[in-house]
Design a protein that fits this description.
Elements lengths: L2 E6 L4 H12 L6 E8 L2 E8 L2 H7 L9 E7 L14 E2 L5 E6 L5 H10 L10 H19 L7 H14 L4 E7 L5 E7 L4 E4 L4 E4 L11 E4 L4 E6 L2 E6 L10 E2 L15 H7 L1 H9 L3 E2 L4 E2 L8 H6 L3 E5 L1 H18 L3 E5 H4 L11 E6 L5 H12 L3 E6 L5 H5 L2 E4 L12 H21 L3 H22 L2 H10 L5 E6 L3 H16 L2 E6 L16 E5 L6 H13 L3 E7 L11 E5 L8 H18 L18
Parallel strand pairs: 17-18, 17-19, 19-20, 20-21, 22-23, 22-24, 24-25, 25-26
Antiparallel strand pairs: 1-4, 1-10, 2-3, 2-4, 5-6, 6-7, 7-8, 8-12, 9-10, 9-11, 11-14, 12-13, 15-16
Bound molecules: fructose -6-phosphate (F6R).
Fructose -6-phosphate binds next to helix 9 and helix 16.
């Protein structure tokens, strides 16, 4: 949420910043801007809208600047207009910065700064930080006498002093006009990575903006600052204690973040699922012995298998995966499991008895609500595990141990491949835990053999893309949809509804199919498509009953059924089939046509699938 990129090196900064911002545009796209440091002045260009709008206003002569900062915004404070777009200057014009996060006490700080004589131009919380740093910088200069050299220490102190006053979250890249040879990056609660190239540095909120320049990076932890100069970089805490940071290898490659012939990242990521699921499973599943090996948590399995209770916390799509996980953990491992909205967890003063295992599920590993839940669980003494996609992300580094999804970068704002991989990881965990409790070897072998077949079966579903597009087309003028499933396919119904909502802007609700008759059935008309997930499973007969109830009231049905199920055809206005598999693993198949349905509906409606209205990838504000 909000993308930051900053360049310090010898090449023209402007094209590097623009390219970096394009790679980060999925983090926010309501306005954008850059500040270039050149000939003793800042040249700042800002505009509402996309990075392409920003490109339109850039003059070519700014190719001379070799230092600069850039930002693509997802608005929190103040509407997305030019004034509120980042970078923000302080009142004196000496400090300029870009910010990702939220300054919670900005109103009181602003009041105080205004009393001190500072002037503000924008409605943002960010401008307060710029002015606060400017205020302390000027104070330091005044104290040391105006003729004292404008050295780096004063800039550094000013940043440190300002940040002690600030409550909230931030990833910041900051420049000072008096100190053109230094750039500062600092983070708390929002991600910030330093890419270390040869005589050049890129500070960014995610690796996608760095990988083109270098694969070597330093992942900053909370309350750490980095100082980039021509001579190298230094890291210390905001309280001025030096810290040694190791260089890490960025694990993503350039082709993983390119469209590679697809029209949209979402389309690419749906299509990638067979291959990334293979990567997720390979080397982890030992079918012959009915066991699972998950390197990151192998040492935790013993504790996990003995736990009396598992709590999972996540948001959005990851929460839906958690609901599938709850079912799998209870059914296969017989461990009482609850799934919490991460955003609500900490407000309940949660009870975590001794021995509770807490599992955070997050694609980005940066979701602020999930991170807050992780911190809460840690404070209360739980063993905290993570199921995370982005290597080196904050949640991955904060949890005691974890499992990576291994699906590569997910750039489409609507999550797809992360969901299927989250379910695959939860299935592996549940089977191994079951095996260590009371699941027989034969049952585990059978489940794992079926699990290894899933990628191939997902591949078969892809062939129905045109058929699914026609279904989307036929229903495109319907503004309200229902998604209905039972058991393990209830979370899939929720996920199908969420996908449709977020990219098609169609109102959709996901419900347990049997709940419909307790109220929502009143909505059924021939104008409301009801999508049923009615595969061959233990609830099959019951869900047919629910379909009958809808049809009896003139409702139109789109049914996701098992291949070869001819009986169900009579109930379907539109039928989509998925290959058969064991009931516990069906969500990895049944969700795929729903992802495709949402994708096609959005395309047919002419929406920008990868940049849906009001949304952004990686929600780093609470
Ligand atoms: C929906 C979607 C969101 C995310 C949610 C959690 O398509 O992408 O609902 O699933 O914001 O994000 P992560 O998994 O990064 O914690």
């Amino acid at each position: 949420m909000c993308g930051i990129v900053a360049y310090f090196g010898k090449k023209p900064a402007q094209p590097i910043l623009i390219e970096g911002l394009k790679r980060l545009e999925y983090r926010g796209y309501d306005s954008a801007g850059i500040a270039l440091l050149k000939n003793g002045r800042f040249d700042i260009y800002k505009t509402p809208g996309r990075i392409s709008n920003l490109e339109d206003i850039l003059p070519p002569e700014d190719l001379q600047a070799t230092v600069g900062i850039g930002h693509t915004r997802w608005a929190t404070h103040g509407e997305p207009n030019t004034v509120n777009a980042h970078p923000h200057l302080d009142d004196t014009g000496k400090i300029v910065l870009v910010h990702n996060g939220i300054i919670e006490n900005y109103a009181s700080l602003k009041k105080w700064l205004i009393k001190e004589g500072c002037q503000f131009r924008s409605q943002t919380d960010t401008e307060v930080v710029a002015n606060l740093i400017g205020y302390f910088y000027e104070k330091n200069c005044a104290r040391d006498g105006q003729n004292a050299p404008k050295d780096r220490n004063r800039f550094e102190w000013a940043v440190q002093e300002a940040l002690t006053e600030v409550h909230g979250t931030y990833g910041l890249a900051i420049m000072c006009l008096d100190c053109p040879n230094v750039m500062i990056g600092v983070k708390k609660g929002s991600p910030l990575i330093l890419g270390v190239g040869e005589n050049e540095y890129v500070i960014a909120s995610d690796a996608a903006a760095i990988i083109e320049h270098t694969s070597q990076a330093v992942y900053l932890s909370d309350n750490e600052m980095v100082f980039v100069t021509e001579g190298g970089f230094e890291t210390k805490t905001v309280t001025n204690i030096e810290v040694r940071k190791e260089l890490s290898e960025i694990e993503i490659s350039l082709d993983q973040i390119e469209l590679e012939g697809f029209d949209h990242y979402m389309q690419k990521e749906i299509a990638e699922q067979p291959q990334v699921l293979e990567t997720c499973l390979n080397g982890r599943v030992d079918v012959k012995n009915g066991r699972v090996i998950l390197g990151g948590i192998q040492n935790q399995f013993r504790i996990l298998a003995r736990t009396k209770r598992v709590i999972m916390a996540a948001c959005g799509t990851a929460w839906h995966a958690g609901l599938v996980g709850e079912f799998l953990f209870e059914q296969l491992a017989r461990i009482p499991t609850e799934v919490e909205y991460a955003s609500e967890f900490r407000y309940r003063n949660p009870i975590l008895e001794e021995g509770t295992i807490f599992i955070a599920i997050s694609q980005s590993g940066e979701t602020a609500d999930t991170l807050a839940a992780v911190e809460q669980a840690k404070e209360r003494g739980a063993t905290v595990l993570g199921i995370v996609n982005v290597v080196g992300s904050t949640i991955a580094r904060t949890t005691d141990a974890g499992v990576y999804l291994r699906v590569g970068p997910e750039i489409g704002v609507a999550s797809t491949k992360a969901f299927t991989a989250q379910v695959a990881v939860l299935a592996m965990l549940a089977i191994e835990l079951g095996r260590r409790r009371h699941l027989g070897a034969d049952a585990a072998q059978y489940l794992l053999r079926e699990l290894m077949q899933i990628p191939q079966k997902v591949r078969r579903i892809m062939a129905q893309s045109d058929h699914i597009r026609r279904i989307a087309q036929a229903n495109i003028d319907r503004e309200n949809w229902l998604f209905l499933g039972r058991g393990l396919n209830y979370p899939v119904a929720l996920e199908g509804a969420l996908k449709l909502k977020e990219i098609s802007y169609i109102h959709a609700e996901g419900l347990p199919a049997a709940e419909m008759k307790h109220g929502p059935i009143a909505l059924i008309t021939d104008r409301m498509p009801a999508v049923f997930i009615a595969t061959k499973c233990s609830h099959y007969e019951k869900i047919i009953g629910n379909i009958e109830e809808v049809r009896a009231r003139g409702g139109k049905t789109i049914i996701i059924a098992t291949e070869g199920d001819d009986h169900i055809r009579q109930y379907a206005d539109h039928l989509i089939t998925v290959p058969d598999t064991v009931e516990q693993l069906q969500p990895m198949l049944t969700v795929v046509p729903l992802q495709m349905l949402a994708y096609h509906a959005a395309v047919v409606r002419g929406h920008d699938v990868d940049k849906p209205r009001n949304l952004a990838k990686s929600v780093t504000v609470e």
